[in-house]
Amino acid sequence: MDEETTKLLVVLQNAYDKGTLAEGFNSARWKSELARSLTGRKLARGIPEGAWRVSYTNASPILGAGPSSKPPACHSHLKRAVRRAKPDIVLAGGLVAERACVEVWSGPLLAIPHPACRVLTNDALDQCRQILESWPQTQIVFRSAIRQLRGGTELVALF
């Protein structure tokens, strides 16, 4: 990859209250909690280091009640996040984020299972990082999803 900074927008499902958001959603606190969480640690493995500027958002602005909450995606919220981040490429984590990104974002998109998904393997995260590292030289990532299979992964096209 050249020395130019690539802008990556990571879209996750939704934030949820771990008991620390009594005063409401706080972006700095959420990012801090994300970095320490299983989701954050797995994302760190799947995102290349170096000349990348990474922004994070959620497909829904609704604050969930816990990790299993799945509020519907909010397209206007996601469109604002895309306008603000001006990404070169979007990484969607989980089906809620993937489906919303397919509808809202027409540019390069790579989708992975939700990073906290128990079946997501390090091999899939390593494949994610390798695909992102090779972009834009290889256009394999134009609109693709890494699907976790029993005993491996599969790269499929998104439409």
Keywords:
alpha/beta; Uracil-DNA Glycosylase, subunit E; 33% helix; 23% strand
Please give a structural write-up.
This protein is of the alpha/beta class. It has one domain (6-157): Uracil-DNA Glycosylase, subunit E, CATH 3.40.470. It is built from five helices and six strands, in the order βααβαβαβαββ. The chain has a six-stranded mixed β-sheet with strand order 2-1-3-4-5-6, with helices on both faces. Strand 5 and strand 6 (152-157) form a beta hairpin.
Topology of helices and strands:
Layout: E1 6-12, H1 27-36, H2 38-46, E2 52-58, H3 75-85, E3 89-93, H4 95-104, E4 109-112, H5 122-134, E5 143-149, E6 152-157
Parallel strand pairs: 1-2, 1-3, 3-4, 4-5
Antiparallel strand pairs: 5-6
Summarize this structure briefly.
This protein is α/β, with parallel strands linked by helices and 159 residues long.
CATH-derived architecture: 3-Layer(aba) Sandwich
The pLDDT mean sits at: 85
Number of helices: 5
The CATH C-level name is Alpha Beta
If you consult CATH, what is the topology? Answer: Uracil-DNA Glycosylase, subunit E
Number of domains: 1
Strand content of the residues, in percent? 15-25%
Computed structural class: alpha/beta
Q: Termini separation (Å)?
A: 26 Å
